[in-house]
Amino acid sequence: MLLQGTDLQILTQPLLRFDMKSSVLDWLGIILKRDLIIAFRRSSTYITPLVFFLIVITFFPLALGPQESLLSSLAPGVIWIAALLASLLAVESIFSEDFRDGSLDDFFISLEPSFILVFAKVMIHWLITGLPILIASSLAAIILYLPLESFVPMILSLLLGTSFMSLLGALGAALSLGKSAILSAIIVLPFSIPTLLMGTSVVTFSLNNQDYSGFLMMMGAMLAIGIPLLCLLTVEALLLNYD
Amino acid sequence: MLPNLKVENLSCVRSEKAIFKNLNFEVLPGQNLEIIGSNGSGKTTLLRMLLGLINKEEGIINWLDEDNNFNEYRSFDCFYQGHQMGIKNMLTVFENLKLTHNAKGMSEEDINKCLERVGLYKINEMASDLSVGQKKRISIARWLLKDFKIYFIDEPFTALDDSASDLIKEIINELNQKGSSFVITGHRSSNINATLIEI
Amino acid sequence: MGSPPLFYRWSSKIMPWLGILAIIFLSIGLFWGLLIAPTDYKQGDVYRILYVHVPSAILGQSIFMFMAACGLINVVWRAKISGMMLKSAAPIGMSFTLIALVTGSVWGKPTWGTWWVWDARLTSTLILFFIYAALIGLYSSIDDKTKADRAVSILSIVGLAIIPVIKKSVDWWQTLHQPSTFTLTSSPSMSPDMYQPLLLCVIGFYLIFAFTLTLNLRNEVIDRERSKNWVKQIFVN
Amino acid sequence: MLENFNNLLYMDGNGLFVWFCMAFFVLVVSLNILYAIKKKRQLIKLIRSL
After folding, report:
1. How far is C79 from C205, CA to CA, in rounded Å?
2. What angle do CA B93, B95, B96 make, to 5 degrees?
3. Which CATH class for the B1-78+181-199 domain?
4. What pTM was computed for the model?
5. pLDDT tens-digit profile of C220-236?
6. How far is the alpha carbon of C198 from chain A, nearest alpha carbon, in Å?
7. Do chains B and A touch (3 or more CB pairs under 8 A)?
8. Which of these, A77, A189, A214, C208, is most buried using a 10 Å CB contact count?
9. Domain boundaries, chain B
10. Chains touching D by CB (3 or more pairs below 8 Å)
11. How many domains does the structure of chain A reveal?
């Protein structure tokens, strides 16, 4: 058979076990609970991306002058660039702590499909960085005089955008585990350009009240394709660090 | 009695240096296996290769599956504990055991029983301010959470005081009675009844 | 072709032919394009930059597709040779993308008076350049060669999946911001005697790529197999 | 056909740009090839000294 000689993680695990038994979802729940408890005990994990986001937002009025017309025309781009960079900031912490204290090995040793467990780590990263940024973005929109009726499209586009960034960031973190954090940024940024373009056009379209649903659907499609593809590749990238 | 794991002429070459050459061994239920070697002699690589974390170039690794024939893919869960014991410093002792997938569906006092067995009962502080010995005891308590056919433990006896190593030997014998076997690595034999393999 | 010594002997046979063919095609194509082809009625002679810009842009993308294909083979079947191909094709792809960028911006100066033009094709070539930089950056940051190959292959697969999305979103982005669509190389009514030299140039570019790739690949093979005795036999006696 | 030589160079005012692109292309390609040849020489020296 064509894939005879391969030993890809997804292919080597006996597929007959791939019936979504409760054990995988329970494990997913346990990982989410454990990491959320750890995250809330060390509150800096979800504060730093938030503060970084707000600082970058306040830089623009300081640098470009506080005129309302200028700021409200720049607002979509500024909010999106700040959200993108802030969610990239915390990418380093997705796998490094688990890899250091050895609990990452269980993902690959168990018979459960490990890319679902990697997806759990991505969800944790989104909950810790993506969600606070989403909440802070309404504050940022107020600061940058973004008209009120384009708040909802901004929140929707950021919801899809930050989750795609967490996925992409997880792959970047897996590839540059143990190396400098800037490497994972350099790897991930070129691939996040479509998300940035579509996210900003959602908000600009809603500014001059055109129909922006096309871009949202496109971002949703990218997320739908991204989750299986990127999680599988992240598993292979993580397995690289064990040699 | 069929072995759970059968390895035939497994060898591993890293940067032109043969780390180990055609190893052959079997792990029978209830029997232990000890892999002795100096530092950097590939003990951890061997364990990870058995468990599929590392891609094996040559050699055959066969696992016994439900209907008693040998299959390349492992069909039962195993326990692996590397050098870092997988202890989360920001969790308390109890949480370190409760929030693991092995402890699924276990009640409070089951977990406390495991902790008591390892001498950590009623210690409920954060794992970060425990001594290394106590952290080792938490990782030993994890062995008792669920019964596995094979436990792969990487150097359990290093940096351990006598009381803890006796405890480990006790637990190993206890679990051997129940039919599970241990594959342990170390620098020198720790005289538990196990077949020895030199690397 | 899989085993390195076989590849090395086979490639040393075809290298000279590849080089000669590349030079022939390139010189004919460029000579024809630059000197013989008629001057364009709108842009005058400056359109001749097209004979360097368009082939290098085409090459930049097709080399990336080639690298992604090698990456896929390397990830799925762990073929060493495809990892080496990936590594040796990366710098060539990056330099062709660089040529496309420089010639594109130089072309913009006389025709639109600005050095850089945010045209859809030029922008996606710029993004492609950054992706090449990411691949080469990742490769150089990992010491073990086979692991670096595998990491770069994984990234090239992501690149393969994202490139069409980038091209589509950049096109939308351009129509969104500059409705007056003046695409740089809209290959105006290319009369046949303008088009034929372009075809020759593209073939010449592919041959130059094949030549340089084999050159790099042979270095890579020797580098990875330097302790094997077939390498010693060739070079030491 | 460009009749005389200076017209070839001049190309109604834009000759510089066209020839610069040509030169840049030749430069980059030859840099690649020269780098590969230099690397090969280094490797051979290394193998011989091994």
Report:
1. 27
2. 65
3. alpha beta
4. 0.91
5. 999 988 888 888 888 87
6. 31
7. yes
8. C208
9. 1-78+181-199
10. C
11. 1
